[in-house]
């Protein structure tokens, strides 16, 4: 075989090996039945095995499914700051399949609630029919003042989209009021969280706090608030997906106002809502004891 001219300085044996490799590759291309397809289409297989191709295929693959709603059928739930009670209703109807272990509360009196949310009575009746309990005039920042909650503990304490709603125009004051509300709520929850270590409860209680993202909500600096409390910790941050709670209709503090409020959960779908699951810092890792 005549020696191939090469600009590379290869030894005789190296050059032979290289020639063999090239010949093998080319003869393989032409040996394949390629019915009208260019033999050089084998380049596409090189492409598909390349790292660039692998990179682009991950871009088009489906994202992992979101975690399911973090409630177990045997968990006790306290809801605070309910609007029209549609969240409590769907929790009983579709998630826990019972209302027996649900206490749903609102800051409003019964009269004011019914004036603010004209669909509240339907959700409340459905919740009560499923065995749930409803309480009015419950301030989430002073749960210890509520006689009916005395000596009770919960596996989940839920506050969806807390908002002081005082109509404060000044942005800084508005943020401050909401920070105060969330901080006081979190502190108020602590004695009402179940605990495997202290009470041999089945679960360590968690606070389920849902929040909107973006401005001004990001400026509430919830992480700093939790840090400043000291003995609470964020266990998980999940997306809040309204379709996981069929029938839930987010409401503003002021009530549903035609022309101002948006239906179909638009207000939260627009805002990349998230759920923070917050627990006590020193809770043990795995469940052993049963209630
Ligand atoms: C934006 S609305 C959300 C209502 C409802 N949780 C929902 O997701 O549709 C904010 C809620 O926080 C409640 N809220 C504000 N301060 C409160 C407090 N100190 N205790 C209990 N609820 C409070 C309001 O009454 C209102 O229902």
From TrEMBL:
It comes from the Eukaryota. GO terms for molecular function: rRNA (uridine-N3-)-methyltransferase activity. One of its GO terms (biological process) is rRNA base methylation. GO terms for cellular component: cytoplasm. It holds the Pfam family BMT5-like. Residues 78-252 form the 25S rRNA (uridine-N(3))-methyltransferase BMT5-like domain. This is 25S rRNA (uridine-N(3))-methyltransferase BMT5-like domain-containing protein. It comes from Diversispora epigaea. The lineage of its organism: Eukaryota, Fungi, Fungi incertae sedis, Mucoromycota, Glomeromycotina.
């Amino acid at each position: 075989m005549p020696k191939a001219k090469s600009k590379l300085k290869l030894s005789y044996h190296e050059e032979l090996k290289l020639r063999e490799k090239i010949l093998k590759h080319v003869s393989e291309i032409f040996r394949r039945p390629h019915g009208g397809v260019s033999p050089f289409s084998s380049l596409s297989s090189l492409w598909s095995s390349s790292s660039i191709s692998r990179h682009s295929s991950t871009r088009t693959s489906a994202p992992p499914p979101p975690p399911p709603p973090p409630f177990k059928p045997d968990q006790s739930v306290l809801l605070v700051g309910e609007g029209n009670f549609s969240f409590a209703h769907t929790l009983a109807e579709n998630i826990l399949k019972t209302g027996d272990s649900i206490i749903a509360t609102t800051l409003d009196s019964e009269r004011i609630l019914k004036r603010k949310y004209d669909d509240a009575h339907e959700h409340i009746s459905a919740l009560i029919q499923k065995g749930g309990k409803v309480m009015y005039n419950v301030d989430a920042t002073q749960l210890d003042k509520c006689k009916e909650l005395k000596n009770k503990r919960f596996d989940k304490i839920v506050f969806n989209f807390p908002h002081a709603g005082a109509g404060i125009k000044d942005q800084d004051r508005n943020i401050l009021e909401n920070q105060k509300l969330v901080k006081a709520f979190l502190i108020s929850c602590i004695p009402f969280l179940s605990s495997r270590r202290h009470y041999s409860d089945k679960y360590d209680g968690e606070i389920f706090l849902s929040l909107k993202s973006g401005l001004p909500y990001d400026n509430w600096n919830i992480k700093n608030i939790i840090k400043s409390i000291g003995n609470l910790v964020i266990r998980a941050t999940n997306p809040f997906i309204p379709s996981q709670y069929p029938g839930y209709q987010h409401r503003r503090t002021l009530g549903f106002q035609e022309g101002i409020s948006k239906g179909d959960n638009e207000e939260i779908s627009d805002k990349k809502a998230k759920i923070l699951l917050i627990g006590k810092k020193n809770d043990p890792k795995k469940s052993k004891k049963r209630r």
